[in-house]
Design a protein that fits this description.
Length: 280
């Protein structure tokens, strides 16, 4: 039984604080995929070199889409899979794929390139990915890859650390970061779990024509920044939002934005959640 392990999770490889953004410009010039022997991601979390604070990175993650997936007890034939949203990624880094629509066909090989420079607490980070799958049932299924059984971890090292920490898979269900203790980013005798501050971002309706309701939960109160970027990565809207602890909701307005695909994100400077928007 094959899982929706859309190796996109791989993309997580950049992990750090979750401010990652889509670079825009996905297409064949971004990276050249390797033909893998079987579906899944490559490399596995423990084989991925840690990202280093304040050092520019350009990393390519390989993957192969699956032939079938199991959904609601049914085994479905995969037609294609699209990256919808990615969160819990680091500030200063962005991603693009070798497909200009970020969509990959049945058993198709693909790659994700992560570039940029970040600063983040040294530690282990878990990627949060939403993917959209088209199957033989005729309509797309949008699902959390984590909930489908996909968990991918990446590591961030301090500039003065050469440690290769073993991935702690017992933290598979924890949100956010496992921080490394120690002045040089090496584990002394324990790890600290640092939870994401922003959770459960939703947009309704989506697609929308004039207005949409943004809803999310926050673990703390304070001023946060919401942004909308185009599919090619251009920022088209930015505003400060007064957030309270717990459930928050407010309306965003289309204004002069043209019909098309955008990305909405909200960040407190530590956690960022991003959601794909469609304006009709």
């Amino acid at each position: 039984m094959k899982k929706l392990i859309f190796t996109l999770s791989l993309f997580c490889i950049i992990a750090v604080k979750s401010n990652a953004q889509y670079c825009g410009g996905s297409g064949s010039s971004v990276c050249t995929p390797t033909i893998l022997a079987k579906p899944g991601l490559s490399p596995i979390s423990d084989s991925l070199a840690p990202i280093v604070d304040n050092v520019a990175t350009s990393t390519v993650i390989e993957f192969q889409n699956y032939d079938t997936l199991t959904f609601s007890g049914q085994t479905l034939t995969m037609d294609s899979l699209q990256v919808d949203t990615i969160s819990n990624l680091p500030s200063g880094l962005c991603w693009a794929t070798n497909s200009n629509t970020n969509t990959f066909g049945n058993q198709q090989n693909g790659c994700i390139k992560v570039t940029g420079t970040t600063t983040a607490t040294p530690g282990q980070y878990k990627l949060h990915i939403i993917v959209r799958a088209w199957t033989n049932i005729g309509f797309p299924i949008t699902t959390n890859a984590d909930a489908a059984g996909l968990k991918y971890f990446v590591r961030v090292n301090a500039t003065d650390s050469s440690c290769w920490h073993v991935i702690d898979t017992t933290q598979a269900d924890a949100n956010g970061i496992i921080a490394y203790n120690g002045s040089n980013g090496c584990i002394i005798n324990s790890i600290n779990n640092v939870d994401q501050n922003i959770q459960s971002l939703s947009v309704y309706p989506n697609p929308f024509t004039s207005q949409a309701m943004i809803s999310f939960n926050s673990a703390k109160a304070g001023m946060m920044t919401e942004k909308i970027t185009s599919i090619i990565g251009n920022e088209v809207y930015s505003q400060q939002v007064d957030v309270k602890m717990g459930t928050n909701s407010h309306v965003i307005t289309r204004n002069t934005l043209s019909a098309g695909v955008y990305f909405y994100s909200i960040t407190d400077g530590v956690s960022t959640f991003t959601k794909r928007l469609i304006i009709e």
